[in-house]
# Entry
Amino acid sequence: MSGLCGWIGHSASVIENMQLVQRMAAPLARFDASEVEADAEGSSAVAVAASSDSRHIHKQDGLLVALWGRPRLREPRLVQLARTEGVARTLGREWRERGEKALESLTGVFSLCILDEAAQEGVLAVDRMGINPLAYQEHGGGLVFGSSADAINIHPRARSEIAPQSVYNYVYFHMVPGPDTIYQDQKRLLPGEYLFYRKGHVEIRKYWRMQFVENEKRPFQELQQEFLNVLRSSVRDAVGDQQVGAFLSGGTDSSTIAGILGEVSGGPAHTYSIGFDASGYDEMEYARIAARHFSTRHHEYYVTPDDIVNTIPQVAAVFDQPFGNASAIPAFYCGQMAKADGLARMLGGDGGDELFGGNSRYAKQHLFSLYEKAPSLMRKGILEPLIFGLPGGAALPLVQKARSYIEQASIPMPARTETYNLLERYGAAEVFTREFLGTVNPSNPAALLDDVYHENNATSLINRMLAFDRKFTLADNDLPKVAKACELAAMEVAFPLISDEIVAFSLRLEPHLKLNGTKLRYFFKEALRGFLPDDIIAKQKHGFGLPFGVWLQQHRGLQGLASDSLSSLKSRNIIRADFIDKLLGHHLDEHAGYHGTMVWVLMMLEQWYRQR
# Structure
């Protein structure tokens, strides 16, 4: 991994500060041996571990400036200045002149710190989509920060007590949603946020918000041309001067990136796909369709149950907090193939669904919203008495479906999105021990969901869901999944579909161009019709889904690893022993794919604990 770390408000000698900050940076360079550049000034120190084009650090007149990533300056005068003086020095100038408003000059992918030793002030910030993470912890008037908790925890004043609420939230969401981390006293910045530090006081602010423009009407051809131009520019920027390949699942997003990559690189793109020898899970056919269509240099690998057994401890260890998305495994094997081929960076197609309306749940929630819009008299006075009062209705499949539809449609958003959440289905009291439940607030996940759903300016259902997923699906889940999997494979990764320019374009699209009735990502598909194969445009979304639950019933090695992990987890007094026994017993027999997800989530929790 690459990243930055440091502190303000911890006095020691310059030599001691430099030694400490370099030790903190070591976990950030553990897989790819990135170069570490460090500097110190008084009670402040910073370090950046990254390749030279992603590492920016400058010290002048008591000011320390450090950036990790590929930041870009918006104003032409600043672009020109950065060419001669560098991005870090230019940003330092802007800070001196404009203070916090200097952040408005930045776009691109980055995390940064600006530490003013003399004024005892500082700023931490992350990019608009939260691609480059940054966590922090206050201590006795000072501040320690890092791209990974593993870096922060090396600092002598860091505290690493596990937060029970974060463990609960992990089991609920299968990741720890920000701004929390797994540690009680550590937080992380959300997309578009910055932290302002002044003499021991910390305040979190926004320098950018997702603002939807829902009524801008423009001709389709004009929108299409702008979109294609921005798309090509974003892929070109993501490639840079690196040897680059692309993930290829055979879906709309990854196929688009693969096709554009071939265009902008002037030759066949390297593409990487993962398959599974399990009915209903293998999508290699679609990846091959896209590879043939774009004449890519296509590379395939079929992940086996043995691969999972061998890889799980490594995958658990690469994350600085528990992470339960099983698709990290196939992402790692793609990165490993690309590394073996001598490539330096992979392009992921993540984000297209969450910007342009591609997830199937959007269409599902649209159908539920139709019932919400029906007159109350019709719903309460006619339909519900009829459907629920029909004698023998429970035995009729059509009536059962109608009842289920009404029951779900009657749940307000965003709680309705969690209808099939495993923890909601089991019940917290059935899963967690009484002692553990006494230390947490079981309603906290619902409050987090509600806060995010209602904090944006959207009025349409689809845009509210997109803003919602920008956080929970992208920033908290898919982006760290791919980034950490690539880190483990010693690969860089870029996400061209969530460039600032594409995000800005998507925010101006009318809602019906994202979800047209129940037609998902309507504009995206129509704009790329003729470029993408028809089979790709028509296919249902799937991705690199892992058949863990199915294989768990068949493979002794997986059974042994799961049983050993969950048996150890019992001793931590978090999960009820009888629930674990049921989960590994008749729950799996009942529905291996569904309940296997919870086995994976709990297994990865225990595996993460073991690595710490």
Q: What stands out?
A: The chain has a mean pLDDT of 94. Residues 3-206 form a domain with the Glutamine Phosphoribosylpyrophosphate, subunit 1, domain 1 fold (CATH 3.60.20.10). DSSP finds 26 helices and 19 strands in the chain.
